[in-house]
């Protein structure tokens, strides 16, 4: 017993020493066949990894359809509690970044330590993925600094109840939209172990490239699930998220959110539901706030290891408020306006022999990515991965986002008619050298086009651009160090 607690204490101590930035501290409904599994089993999505599980080793995903976490093809059960450290080196060669003043190509190096930790008890589970280190660049916009990524989840299960705490943090020198595409650089823990789940709460809402400089984003969410009957359940959640930028000219934001959902399992594979979501966006030093209310109908279909489909949509009521703040010029327009539009989207994951395919689309109101005080956003993403023989694997990624500032004829902010189309494309291949070492190389390209209103000022008015990147990534990890 003493040895076990010594090992746990050692793992936690390593995580504490590596972490320089502390975080602020959706699961198909259980069917009629079985109640939710205890938290002592791992609940990971299928990650791109050379040791990808086969469909016959995957257990059902019990995340609620109307919950906050992304749906997955299933989960892989871990027989042990363990931790697994590793190291990572990435070299990125990129063309000019927007606003950098550089010409030609620049080089950025990332050196990081990675840790994954899975600790399971009878009725709870703790999972942590962490990456942290330094970045060194001759690009003046990036410069020398550090970066941090953390994914944290703590789950408790009691008969009909489940309580989940989730936190996802990133401190990066640039937008996380396409960051590390084709490699494990953009994943907390480097994606070094498929047995430790990621949070499953998606990105932190940065889909624009022209918010320059380092930025901190953090999303903390708590969700409670109650099983009403073997077929039906309700879930409620609360969220607090932030975006903070080091450089001037970007817009910091806070996001306060809540949701309430109902799920009903029609049969073994199909679920329907309804969910209400509320989000309030507040901008530091700005006079704008946004209240967003969405009611959505949802449909989900699950075939464990093969198919995960989720569709949702409904009305979106948005209230945009402007109030005077200290230093605001006399005569500044204030007031509020309300609009009724639609919100919705879908996610599809498909598992085939030796690979996975996933696409997603979402339309709704977001914080504005540090460029706008609120944005109407359309976002699309796609990924395909495939194992090429015993040691090689390949993947391709695509992401598209259209952001348009929220406004109407009654209240117009300078530059608020601006809109951006952002795209990233990536393709990569990797090779494992034994069970502990992996090398990958990837090419990615970022594109951005815009439409700008007369009188536009600030970061929302930067020009169009294209950026190319070549990334070489090396990862080494120990074998899993068993806690029990």
Write up what this structure looks like.
The protein has 484 residues and is mainly β. The protein has a single domain, classed as Porin, CATH 2.40.160. It is 4% helix and 53% strand. It contains 1 helix and 19 strands. The protein has an 18-stranded antiparallel barrel. Strand 4 (145-158) and strand 5 form a beta hairpin. The protein is globular, with a radius of gyration of 22 Å. The N and C termini lie close together (10 Å).
Notable characteristics:
single chain, 484 residues, 19 strands
CA-CA gap between termini: 10 Å
The fraction of residues assigned to DSSP E strands is: over 45%
CATH architecture: Beta Barrel
Helix content: under 10%
CATH fold name: Porin
Can you count the beta strands?
A: 19
Averaged pLDDT, please? 82
- Gyration radius over CA: 22 Å
CATH class: Mainly Beta
Number of folding domains?
A: 1
Shape: globular
């Amino acid at each position: 017993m003493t040895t076990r607690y010594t090992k746990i204490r050692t793992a936690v101590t390593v995580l504490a020493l590596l972490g320089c930035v502390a975080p602020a501290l959706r699961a198909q409904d259980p069917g009629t066949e079985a109640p939710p599994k205890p938290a002592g089993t791992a609940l990971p999505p299928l990650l791109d990894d050379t040791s990808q599980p086969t469909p016959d080793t995957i257990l059902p995903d019990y995340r609620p359809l109307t919950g906050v976490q992304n749906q997955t093809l299933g989960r892989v059960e871990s027989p042990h509690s363990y931790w697994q450290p590793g190291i990572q080196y990435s070299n990125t060669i990129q063309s000019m970044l927007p606003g950098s003043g550089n010409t030609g190509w620049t080089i950025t190096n990332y050196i990081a330590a990675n840790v994954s930790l899975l600790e399971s008890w009878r009725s709870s589970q703790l999972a942590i993925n962490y990456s942290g280190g330094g970045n060194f660049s001759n690009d003046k916009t990036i410069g020398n600094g550090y970066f941090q990524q953390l994914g944290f989840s703590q789950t408790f299960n009691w008969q009909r109840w489940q309580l989940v705490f989730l936190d996802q943090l990133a401190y990066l020198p640039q937008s996380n939209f396409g960051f590390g595409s084709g490699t494990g650089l953009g994943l907390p823990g480097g994606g070094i172990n498929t047995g430790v789940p990621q949070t499953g709460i998606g990105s932190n809402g940065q889909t624009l490239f022209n918010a320059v400089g380092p930025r901190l984003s953090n999303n903390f969410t708590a969700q409670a699930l109650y099983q009403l009957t073997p077929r039906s359940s309700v879930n409620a959640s609360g969220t607090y998220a932030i975006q903070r930028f080091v450089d001037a000219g970007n817009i910091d934001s806070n996001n306060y959110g809540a949701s309430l959902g109902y799920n009903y399992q029609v049969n073994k594979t199909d679920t329907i539901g309804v969910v209400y979501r509320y989000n309030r966006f507040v901008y530091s030093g700005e006079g704008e706030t946004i209240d967003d209310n969405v009611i959505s109908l949802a449909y989900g279909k699950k075939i464990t290891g093969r198919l995960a489909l989720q569709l949702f949509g409904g009305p979106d009521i948005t209230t945009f408020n402007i109030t005077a703040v200290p230093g605001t010029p006399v005569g500044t327009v204030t007031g509020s306006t309300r609009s009724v539009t639609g919100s919705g989207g879908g996610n599809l994951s498909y598992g085939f022999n030796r690979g996975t395919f996933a696409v997603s689309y979402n339309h709704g109101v977001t914080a504005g990515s540090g460029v706008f005080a609120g944005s109407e956003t359309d976002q699309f993403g796609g990924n395909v991965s495939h194992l090429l023989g015993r040691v090689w694997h390949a993947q391709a990624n695509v992401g598209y986002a259209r952001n348009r500032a929220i406004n109407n004829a009654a209240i117009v902010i300078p530059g608020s008619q601006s809109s951006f189309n952002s795209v990233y494309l990536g393709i990569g291949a990797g090779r494992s050298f034994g069970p502990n070492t992996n090398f990958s190389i990837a090419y990615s390209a970022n594109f951005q086009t815009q439409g700008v209103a007369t009188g536009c000022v600030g970061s929302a008015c930067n020009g169009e651009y294209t950026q190319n990147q070549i990334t070489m990534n090396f990862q080494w990890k120990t074998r899993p160090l068993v806690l029990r």
